[in-house]
Amino acid sequence: MIGRIRSRRRMAVVLALVMLGAVGCVEAPAEPILQGTAKLSSAERSSTIQEETRRRADEDGVERRARAASVRLRITGPDIYGASVGSGFAVEAHTVITNAHVVARGTQVDVVAWDGEETQATSGRMAVRTDLAAVATAGRVPATPLELAGEQPQPGDRVTIVGFPGGGQITVETAASVVDPAYEGPLPAREPVMAIAADSVEPGSSGGPVLNRAGEVVGVVFAVERATGRVLAIPASTLRSWLRSSGIR
Length: 249
Fold this sequence. Notes:
By secondary structure, the protein is an alpha+beta fold.
């Protein structure tokens, strides 16, 4: 009897396990859940890829625009040993924007595009309250004019910085980041400037444009703060006000 009872118990346990397995197979829709998860993951991956593609396309477009608009300035004069160099960008067919300190001591300014085409400046005007200058050229500026942005960037926004460090080849840094759009640091400035985290700015980069993702000018590079290494730029709003008040544009 004991043997039969044990045998029956074993059969009951086996049947119970079989039934649980069967119920599990019926009620656990494993395949549909896995399929749904795979579809969601695929959609997320697709969205990420599309966003990355758009970002790269934006950067490529801004870089092309930056190269087409930026110029290298070669400045000579009796108070300059050899020649000094700086950067600038076109805002009109015969007008280049740069820093006042770039052209202040020069008697001749050559405007050279990144591809080597050049013209010569005939006159210039420097701002009194900020480090800005506008250079008028004899011939058409060998560059495509840029538009000034209507809004300033926010902290963390990615921007593109363009210039000719050391008077050499053009550099276009697309991964720069705005730290503070209204920075009041130790560098003497009569109004807030833009502080940017960037790596490519060196002597010769002064006067180069800072562009947003739309390829519009949001600032003009004029210095690097030694204590922090931050690039400092004059906001586009300041440039716009000066151009308007001086009758240049």
